[in-house]
Design a protein that fits this description.
Pfam family, one: PhoH
Distance between the termini: 30 Å
Number of domains: 2
Mean pLDDT: 83
InterPro entries: P-loop_NTPase, PhoH, PhoH2-like, PIN-like_dom_sf, PIN_dom
Helix content: 25-40%
Structural class: alpha/beta
Strand order of the largest sheet: 3-4-2-1-5-6
Largest sheet: 6 strands, mixed
Keywords: ATP-binding, Nucleotide-binding
CATH architecture of the largest domain: 3-Layer(aba) Sandwich
CATH superfamily of the largest domain: P-loop containing nucleotide triphosphate hydrolases
GO molecular function, one term: ATP binding
Family: In the N-terminal section; belongs to the PINc/VapC protein family. Belongs to the PhoH family.
Low-confidence stretches: 1-7, 315-319
Length: about 475
Amino acid sequence: MVRIDKKATRLYVLDTNVLIHDPASLYQFDEHEVVIPMTVLEELDKHKNGVREIARTARQVSRTLSDLTANVDLEQIREGIPIPRLTGPEGRLRLLCYTDLQPLDPLEASPDNRILAETCRLRDERPDASVILITKDINLRVKAAALGVPVEDYLNDRAFDDSDAMLEGVRVYPDAGNELWNDLALDVSVERDAQRVTYQLSGEIPAEWHPGMLVADSDDEGGFEAIVREVSSQRARLALLTNYRHGASVWGVHAHDCRQNFTLNLLMDDDIDLVTIAGSAGTGKTFMTLAAAFQQTLDTKRFERIVFTRAPISMSEDIGFLPGTEEEKMSPWMGAFHDNMDNLLRDENGESSWDNGATRQLLGSRVQIRAPGFMRGRTLNDTFLIIDEAQNFTPKQLKSLVTRAGRNTKIVCLGNVGQIDTPYLTANTCGMAALVQRFRDWPHAGHITLKSVERSRLALAGEELL
């Protein structure tokens, strides 16, 4: 066993199979340095062609590396390319290239042995650091151990999380209690009108605050929950949220925690034109959005129609061309839509009116299912537009959809960057992440990352353990 100095700088040399196994592995080593040998880049280049999963993953890794090296100069490449992280210190990426590398005698000149030689030379050049080879290859780990090179298996199989790729839209101060403003050293004045309670704050406003985010003092009911309307370095204006937990509801839907309550507030807020909702499977993104859409279209008549669209990208093999009209072709991709429709239309006895002819006719006249490829050139007025699986859109594609908004239109984007199905996007380059980042400071946009899984204990366990 090779002893690793825990206090020394750590350089993690990644084998090709680690990047293929987890394209987001570059971001999983915290503040330490990640090293990519030139041999690994050559192997990625060999794997990139074709339609197999390994080719798609290789292209995804190449795009991530391209994004990281896009705006850096030669000096930064030599010093280490910053790997951005939302929380904690950023890491560094180093590209390892030796033009005069000597092979390890008596090993043959294979890619694995070349990676081993590159690691050994880096170890000799950096006696001040702990150089560790990370590989999924058992034989390579045995060889490295025989040569006295610290080696580890890659065990961090956690899928890339929404919170890793974009802001959460939430700031909770659980220890503040009733002393929130005292803890933040802010002066506050309260204004009340017929619509809402507003807080005017002055002092040193926290730097992470931005318009359209939730500020709360607890996840529990009864605490302070407000949305940031305006913010600068010395002043901020917050509006108290409506409580949708028990009394008020949206199409019969109640919130279970502060994030869900904030989500319903964003969806029902006339001042918010763009809502982005991230979260893992089963957090209620589509369910709450459809409830708000029905409430504002069928009850309050704020909108004339609901338009539902999503990227028709499968998570496995393509099933080929589909017959029928545009809506019939989109039907296989609309399982989440129909499941939530069925749940929202159930009565107190648990029976659904979705199969009722009159209900279908009413909803058919107000709800439209559209393919995103046919949205270009349209202007959507008086529309509640829902873009599902937004993580599978490129920033350019999402731009073409967002710019369809006309008079009195609200757009809601739903997604989870941990479930990207297109091979050409990563958690950092997908349209969902770009949209959240670009609209961060726009006062008529709001974002929330949901945490609580509502489907079942099995779904919750799957989200935590897989």
